Each structure stands twice: as C-alpha cells, then as structure tokens.
Amino acid sequence: MDKNVFKRNELLAEKVIKGLESRNMSGYYAADRAEALKVALSLIPEKSSVTMGGCMSAHEIGLVEAVESGDYNYLDRSKYDDPRRALLDAYDADVFLTSANAMTDDGIMINIDGNANRVSCIAQGPKKVIFIVGMNKVCPDIDSAMKRARNVAAPCNVQRFALSTPCAKTGKCFDCKSPDTICCQFLITRFSRHKDRIHVILVNDDLGF
Questions:
Q1: HSE (CB half, 13 Å, CA atoms) of 165?
Q2: Which strand ranges, in their side-by-side order, compose the sheet holding 95-98?
Q3: pTM above the 0.85 mark?
Q4: What whole-number distance in Å separates Cα of residue 169 and Cα of residue 85?
C-alpha cells in the first residue's frame, strides 16, 4: 500500500473510532492483518462459543483458522444439517464474528443480508459482536455507504455464490426482486444500547467486498 494512502487511512481511522465511541461501541485500529488478528483474539476469551455469518474479512486475517484450531467452541454453520438450529445456536453464542458491507466515517454501519442470519445476530442475540472492517469500506456518509453496499458488496457476493441477479451480470444494483436477490434485509447500526457488546476492528488494508 502506498505510504500516503496508509497514512490517510490511519488518520481517518481515528475519526471513525471516535464516532464509534460516541455510539456506545468500541473501536480499534490495526496497521495490518497480523495486528488485526492479535486484537481480535484478545477480545475472545478461551472456551468461548464462537460463530460467524459469511465474513470474508475474518478469513482473510486468519481469524477463522485461529478460532477453529484454538481453545474455543467454534460453531461452524456449514456443518449443521439444520440451518435453523445453526441460527438458534448462533443467537446464544458468546461471540459473533462479522464485517460491514460499508460504514460511515462517523461510525454508522450498513449491512445487507439475504437470509437475515447475519443482520439478526448483529442486532441481538450473541453476547459480543466483533466486526473486522477494512478501511476500503469507510464512506463519507450513509448515502454513499448504502450505495457501496448495494453496488459493490452485493454484486460481488452474488457472483461469489453464483446467483442469477441483474447485478451479477452488470455489477450494478437494479433494486431487483429476483428470487435470487440477497438484498432482502437492510440493517443500519447507529448505536449500541449495550456497552461492550459491539467491537469494531479497523484494518489498514483492503478486506472483503
């Protein structure tokens, strides 16, 4: 990463963290993926039950592998025969790992979901929610964050899942009602009523979609 971009991200992260703190959420800055992994693991007590919802960023920093191989009870939803049982167990987990499709520079997070397992766990259920967010996802305001979520994150995810939607073919949101749409539920997280529940690790790198 260019040193000027790196410094710009570092300064921007300071503003984002202040915004998160004003919203009763905790923010952390990590200069790289290795530091992000270290911060994340410091927030997860051993023996904790840990699960996640489709978070590429957690994979990219090595967090999923670390949890799978560490002294944790990792609830891997891909190994459940019953998706509803996986969701119910996730609600009762100690820690939920996730990312944001986009966020504003004053700490508001935007997430779009198809089955709502991810956004519902962010909203309530798990005792602690840890976000891994690359600085590529930080936007100036809610409008630009929503546009990023719909026109960058969503098309990339439908392509990843090989779904048939207009955005999969064009890379642009058409506000469709396709049977394959993943834009079913929109969650704007602007404040946490419960202190120490939501933790956001900002990583000075491009992560996820």
A1: 29
A2: 26-30, 198-203, 128-134, 95-98, 49-52, 73-74
A3: yes
A4: 34
pLDDT tens for the 209 residues of the chain, in order: 899 999 999 999 999 999 999 999 999 999 999 999 999 999 999 999 999 988 999 999 999 999 999 999 999 998 999 989 999 999 999 999 999 999 999 999 999 999 999 999 999 999 999 999 999 999 999 999 999 999 999 999 999 999 999 999 999 999 999 999 999 999 999 999 999 999 999 999 999 99
Task: Tell me whether residue 140 is exposed, middle or buried, using C-beta atoms within 10 angstroms of its C-beta: 0 to 12, 13 to 18, 19 or more.
Answer: exposed
CATH node for 3-135+185-203: 3.40.50.10420
Cβ(45)–Cβ(88) below 8 Å: no
